[in-house]
Amino acid sequence: MTLNDYIYYVILPVLAFSILLIFYRFFRGPSIVDKVIALDLLITTGIGIIAVYSIVHGRSTFMDTAMILALIAFLSTVAFSYYIEKRNRKK
User: Fold this and answer.
1) What does the alpha-carbon distance between residue 20 and residue 68 come to, in Å, rounded to a whole number?
2) What is the DSSP code string of 13-72?
3) Which helix (H) or strand (E) holds 85?
4) What CA–CA distances, in Å, run from 78 to 23, 54, 70, 83?
5) What whole-number distance in Å separates Cα of residue 59 and Cα of residue 82?
6) pTM of the shown model
7) How many whole angstroms separate alpha carbon 23 and alpha carbon 41?
8) Which of 22, 36, 47, 58 has an alpha carbon 20 to 30 Å from 30's alpha carbon atom?
9) What is the mean pLDDT of residues 32-59?
């Protein structure tokens, strides 16, 4: 089994199935915190798909996009955590 076969038959189906599970949690999440975590995980899975695409096609420029997307996802999660912390202190 070559690397491309492994990517096509193992990694991409696992990523696709995880996206379905993440969307389920995003739409059925009981609280806003669950939805934000699901959105962060969705972005992380998208970064994995971008990395797989970059490996298959041999283009490293997509990894720059993935790094920027990871930075934005991290900063948005930190900002949301800060917002929740401030909101809980005021009560």
Assistant:
1) 24
2) HHHHHHHHHHHHHHHH-SSHHHHHHHHHHHHHHHHHHHHHHHHHHT-THHHHHHHHHHHH
3) helix 61-90
4) 21, 28, 12, 9
5) 36
6) 0.85
7) 10
8) 47
9) 92
Q: What is the pLDDT of residue 91?
A: 65
78 vs 65: CA distance, rounded Å:
20
DSSP 78: H
| Location of structure tokens 């909101």 | 87
- Joined together, the tokens standing for residue 41 give 């995980």
CA distances 46 to 17, 79, 83, 90, Å, are 12, 20, 25, 35
d(CA 18, CA 2): 23
Tokens 């915190």, located at residue: 33
Q: Which of 24, 68, 9 is nearest to 43 (CA)?
A: 68
d(CA 31, CA 45): 21
